[in-house]
Amino acid sequence: MNIPSSDLVKAAEAAVEAVSRPLELAVVLPTYNERKNVATMVARLDEALKGIAWEAIFVDDNSPDGTSDEARQLSQVDPRVRCIQRIGRRGLASAAIEGMCSTAAPIVAVMDADHQHDPALLPKMLAAVETGEYDLAYASRFAEGASTEAWGRPDRVKASGLANRIANKVTGVELTDPMSGFFMLRTETLRADAHRLSGVGFKILLDILATVDRPLKVKEFPLNFAARAEGESKLDQTVVFEFLVGLYDKWLGRIIPTRFALFGTVGAMGVVVQLAALWALLHLAFGERFVYGNWSESATFNVANTLAAVIAMTFNFALNNELTYSDKRLRGFGPLMRGWAQFGVTCSLGLLTNVGSAAVLKTIGIHDFVAVVTGIVLGSVWNFALSSKFVWGK
Ligand code: GDD
Ligand code: MN
Questions:
Q1: What residues have their beta carbon closer than 5 A to ion ligand 2?
Q2: Smallest Cα–Cα separation from 350: which of 374, 372, 382, 375?
Q3: ipTM of the complex
Q4: Which atom of ligand 1 lies closest to the CA of 32?
Q5: What is the pLDDT along the chain (394 residues), one digit of tens a residue?
Q6: Beta bridge mates, 139
Q7: How far, in Å, is the centroid of ligand 1 from the Cα of 337?
């Protein structure tokens, strides 16, 4: 690699700067397809954080656009830049947690890498947290003096209003923007409770506030939420869904694990799909009298029901891939076909477990209803365990 000499001089200066004082601040930047924003982001941090010993940690989920390569390239000439490249995983919240846990700096910030968050706020936030006066500083899009005009998303401003009220109820802390992705706190505060953070599609700041037992003293800074510099947002379709999942995870996640609850809900929807498909096949496809050609009525029913079961299984596979295992989503024709086939085998075994265990319970004299429900629960647990390991495993 050919590095221009001016860059080497800058690198030497940065290196001297980096080792001459203990690290004060780490800035964690979760990234997915932000290649074009990485270098400009580092330049802005350099500008904003003059006189502060800082490091930037890009936590990249193996972006296809080569964001990790870009971050590593910068890192070669500027030791303050670090890159964590995660393979086979997706998720803003979990990326932020991993980044925050990976630093030796006493204070850590999280911010978006797409220039929507203004790094000029970082020194002010640092001053608030460093002195110990506040436990947490964060930038609010809805505080007095903030603006979201450049955002150009009035729909999301409105949606945020309702979600914010719910969020404030959950955490017991009144914030104007609990969904903010731009905040700073002492690393030890985070580390003490990091193992209890869910990392499941919950807004990370909200998760921290809801998880840390003692009330945190929070300092709010008004933010001018800018338009994204390059690329596009990744949170659009799933914001509301992830918010609900996050709420569930906080309230009941410890009793029935969130992923299992999602899997079960999808399964229940599958039952409805199978019934609807069976009805449609019998009434619409196989004709009025439920008899196809010269097949008997029961043969027609069995064929239709088998088709309906395959349709429901496919529906469940697609929805689980989209929602339940969104962080391990299978993509591309090959992986999808393989996953679908594996899911089919898993479900067939699950059905045997379901029907088999109910039969056993019935023979030992357990009430029909209890036997059936137990069978359904056991079959679902079996399906879930096998799917997690074999279909969406690795
Ligand atoms: N590692 C990783 N993995 N990073 C991700 C992922 C992911 O799955 N998804 C998004 N990011 C990164 C983006 O690359 C960007 O740097 C930052 O997280 C924010 O993502 P955007 O896709 O730009 O989010 P947004 O602008 O629509 O959402 C904003 O508002 C949310 C609340 O409404 C952000 O400020 C969020 O932080 C905030 O929670
Ligand atoms: Mn953004």
A1: 112, 114, 116, 228, 233
A2: 382
A3: 0.97
A4: 14
A5: 567 777 778 777 766 766 678 999 999 999 999 999 999 999 999 999 999 999 999 999 999 999 999 999 999 999 999 999 999 888 888 999 999 999 999 999 999 999 999 999 999 999 999 999 999 999 998 888 888 776 666 666 666 777 778 878 777 788 888 889 999 999 999 998 888 887 765 578 988 988 887 888 999 999 988 888 888 887 766 667 777 888 888 778 778 888 999 999 999 999 999 999 998 888 877 765 555 566 677 777 888 889 999 999 999 999 999 989 988 889 899 999 999 999 999 999 999 999 999 999 999 998 988 999 999 999 999 999 999 999 998 6
A6: 221
A7: 30
Q: Which atom of ligand 1 is nearest to the CA of 234?
A: 22
* Ligand 1, CB cutoff 6 Å, lining residues: 30-32, 34, 59-61, 90-92, 95, 112-114, 116, 179, 181, 203, 228, 233-235
Name residues whose C-beta falls within 8 Å of residue 383's C-beta, 6 or more positions apart in sequence. 263, 267, 346, 347, 349, 350
| Residue to mutate (ligand 1; options 33, 58, 209, 235; most atoms within 8 A of CB) | 235
* Strand pairing class (107-110; 54-60): unpaired
- Whether the Cβ atoms of residue 278 and residue 304 lie closer than 8 Å to each other: yes
* DSSP-derived 3-state class of residue 301: helix
- CA-wise closest residue to 93 among 10, 2, 181: 181
From the CA of 110, which ligand is nearest?
1
Whose alpha carbon is nearest atom 15 of ligand 1?
112
Ligand 1 atom nearest to CA at 37: 16
Between the CA of 3 and the centroid of ligand 2 the distance, in Å, is: 31
